[in-house]
């Protein structure tokens, strides 16, 4: 496996994209290391597919530069960039067998027949589709079609694999198993992979590095753990994690305390950071809130609604000041709507953000 994080595989320098007067990608700088699995994630319309398609050469870059393996590729055709792309729609040729679908690109590139056969064999073994080679796409399940689409990328031996929401057309169960397959493929091949999704579970489980995008800008780039535990702003904090992080309007108090719904909470931040009375946002993940049955908690809330999911119960609560808050309650003792609960949490699990949503440290 090539996983030399010291070597640069893909470098984006101030990459921009406009459609007419509408700018949709606003100057993105990003360095992707050799062998890294990078996931672009963000809400619909944030520009993740556009960015991937610019790396692929399927969209022109309005401004900025793209390098792949040390080569400037900004103005090169897709076929000259050393990339292979897997699409959500599979994009297979319906009238060709699986074998011919796999071989087609290589034939076009005038590879010799023996080499093509070796590559098709190797790819179909990796993807466990050897028994399907004579079938046509119409005779395959969705998961099998996606394997063929991935196989078509593998046979080309690209430097970089690009995936554009490859699992979105599959049902939930198949998505999980294909996700594991893609992780295995990355481990076996060791190539750089760039993957676009709006599914945060795919992002968290597949990525070495997650790039969270919003409105054509990078909000944060980091390991899944950094993004989850150390979000740079309220957008990232609320986007990654399910149920989402509670983001509560609070006031900065004396001596580094935060005032929320009549309670005073130790923030762990230096009092000099903020003027007393300034508005702050307190972030608390649902799994970090514990219902305290035998001791007074820091916060009191009323349960509006509860959802039982077996091992876990989600409690949708309201604070005295009317703000909503979700609690992930893991206990055999279930709690019903209407109950008043007192909540405990470790101050080190609190995240604080300023009025503009930027993290306070
Ligand atoms: N050909 C085009 N002409 C004009 N605007 C476009 C064009 N293609 C995309 N856009 C706009 O660019 C922005 C980014 O689109 P893009 O498809 O990259 O978003 P995305 O994050 O991949 O969204 P989704 O998750 O919905 O696929 C959107 O606002 C979109 O409307």
TrEMBL record:
Membrane topology classification: Peripheral membrane protein
InterPro entries the UniProt entry points to: AAA+_ATPase, ABC_transporter-like_ATP-bd, ABC_transporter-like_CS, ABC_transpr_MalK-like, ABC_transpr_MalK/UgpC-like, Mo/tungstate-bd_C_term_dom, NA-bd_OB-fold, P-loop_NTPase
Superkingdom classification of source: Bacteria
ABC transporter domain location: 10-240
Keyword annotations of the record: ATP-binding, Cell inner membrane, Cell membrane, Membrane, Nucleotide-binding, Transport
GO MF terms held by the record: ABC-type maltose transporter activity; ATP binding; ATP hydrolysis activity
GO cellular component: ATP-binding cassette (ABC) transporter complex, substrate-binding subunit-containing; maltose transport complex
CDD domains noted in UniProt: ABC_MalK_N
Record SUPFAM superfamilies: MOP-like, P-loop containing nucleoside triphosphate hydrolases
Keyword RNA-binding applies: no
Location relative to the cell: Cell inner membrane
PROSITE patterns linked to this entry: ABC_TRANSPORTER_1 (PS00211), ABC_TRANSPORTER_2 (PS50893)
One Pfam match: ABC_tran
PANTHER family: MALTODEXTRIN IMPORT ATP-BINDING PROTEIN MSMX, MALTOSE_MALTODEXTRIN IMPORT ATP-BINDING PROTEIN MALK
Family per record: Belongs to the ABC transporter superfamily.
Name recorded for this polypeptide: sn-glycerol-3-phosphate ABC transporter ATP-binding protein UgpC
Gene this protein is translated from: ugpC
């Amino acid at each position: 496996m090539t996983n030399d994080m010291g070597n640069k595989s893909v470098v984006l320098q101030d990459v921009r994209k406009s459609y007419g007067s509408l700018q949709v990608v606003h100057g993105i700088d990003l360095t992707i290391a050799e062998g890294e699995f990078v996931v672009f994630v963000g809400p619909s319309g944030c520009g993740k597919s556009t960015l991937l398609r610019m790396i692929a050469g399927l969209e022109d870059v309005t401004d900025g530069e793209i390098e792949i393996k040390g080569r400037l590729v900004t103005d090169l055709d897709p076929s000259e960039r050393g990339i292979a792309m897997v699409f959500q729609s599979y994009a297979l040729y319906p009238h060709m067998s699986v074998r011919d679908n796999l071989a087609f690109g290589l034939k076009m590139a005038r590879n010799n027949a023996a080499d093509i056969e070796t590559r098709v064999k190797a790819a179909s073994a990796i993807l466990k589709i050897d028994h399907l080679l004579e079938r046509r796409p119409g005779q395959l399940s969705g998961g099998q079609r996606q394997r063929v689409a991935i196989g078509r990328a593998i046979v080309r031996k690209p430097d970089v694999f690009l995936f554009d929401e490859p699992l979105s057309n599959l049902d939930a169960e198949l998505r999980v198993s294909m996700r594991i397959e893609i992780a295995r493929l990355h481990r076996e091949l060791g190539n750089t992979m760039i993957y676009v999704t709006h599914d945060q579970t795919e992002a968290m489980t597949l990525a070495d590095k997650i790039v969270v995008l919003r409105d054509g800008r990078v909000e944060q780039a980091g390991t899944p753990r950094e993004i989850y535990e150390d979000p740079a702003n309220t957008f990232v904090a609320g986007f990654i994690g399910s149920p989402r992080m509670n983001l509560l309007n609070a006031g900065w108090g004396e001596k580094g305390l935060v005032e929320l719904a009549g309670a005073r909470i130790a923030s762990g931040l230096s009092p000099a950071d903020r003027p007393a009375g300034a508005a702050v946002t307190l972030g608390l993940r649902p799994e970090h809130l514990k219902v305290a049955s035998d001791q007074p908690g820091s916060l009191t809330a009323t349960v509006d609604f509860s959802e039982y999911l077996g091992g876990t119960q989600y409690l949708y609560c309201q604070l005295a000041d009317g703000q909503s808050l979700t609690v992930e309650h893991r206990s055999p003792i279930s709690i019903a709507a209407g109950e008043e609960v007192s909540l405990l949490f470790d101050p080190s699990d609190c995240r604080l953000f300023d009025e503009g949503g930027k993290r306070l440290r």
